[in-house]
Amino acid sequence: MNTTEERVASALLRIGAVFLRPEQPFTWASGIKSPIYCDNRLTLSAPEVRTLVEQSLAETVRKYYPACEMLMGTSTAGIAHAAITADILGLPMGYVRSSAKDHGRTNRIEGRMEKGCKVVVIEDLISTAGSVIEVVEALREEGAEVLGVVSIFTYGMQKGLDRLKAAGVENHSLSNLDALVEVAAREGRIAPEWKDRILAFRNNPSDESWIK
Fold it and tell me: What's the pLDDT tens digit per position in 57-74?
């Protein structure tokens, strides 16, 4: 496998960080039935995969955001990835809480960040993009110049793409659902005929016709 998308997809599948189960769909909190479950936290306990992911995050930041002055992780899944990647790049790091603390200085943003600081947000998963956009907006309110987002995996859902565009947020993911289903079929993890049906779910999650 030559591309980062394929290498990361294969690694996530291998450790079960991304799990495809189209014959027995998962049910999301929203009630939507999904053929995929993603938990990129598992990469942290798999050293070889962790190294691949963090080095790839660092390379992506270098490639697309050479002016980056600080990394900010999303709470909580992006914090460890931001910390390790910042160490590789020799950059300062902080993170954004899902809500402000109710004690002390009531911070939402942790870490010393000067106004005008050029920031890249590190996220583990992009689905509908709502949570990462909230993080970007919180950083902008505190005076940061958010250059973009670097994430481990994206479903590529249209709702997420539309939200990112409307918010003026650029995202670069290490891998995506299109690459994942190709690798999964190649490795015999799913039957080839499931590729289009899984992508049909991604394109219209509320339509359960892909299950039939």
Answer: 999 999 999 999 999 999
**One-letter amino acid of 169:** V
Reference 8, options 55, 68, 45, 63; nearest CA is 55
Respond yes or no on whether the N-terminal peptide bond of residue 76 is cis (omega within 30° of 0): yes
- Please, which residues have CB within 8 angstroms of residue 74's CB and are 6 or more apart in sequence? 95, 96, 121, 122, 123, 124, 131, 132, 135
pLDDT tens digit sequence for 73-101? 999 999 999 999 999 999 999 999 976 54
Q: What is the DSSP letter of 210?
A: G
Tens of pLDDT along 89-133? 999 999 999 765 444 455 789 999 999 999 999 999 999 999 999
Pairing of strands 93-96, 109-110: antiparallel
User: Cβ-count burial of 195 within 10 angstroms (0-12 exposed, 13-18 middle, 19+ buried)?
Assistant: middle
Relative to beta strand 145-154, strand 118-126 is parallel
Question: Environment class of residue 149 by beta-carbon count within 10 Å: exposed (0-12), middle (13-18) or buried (19+)?
Answer: buried
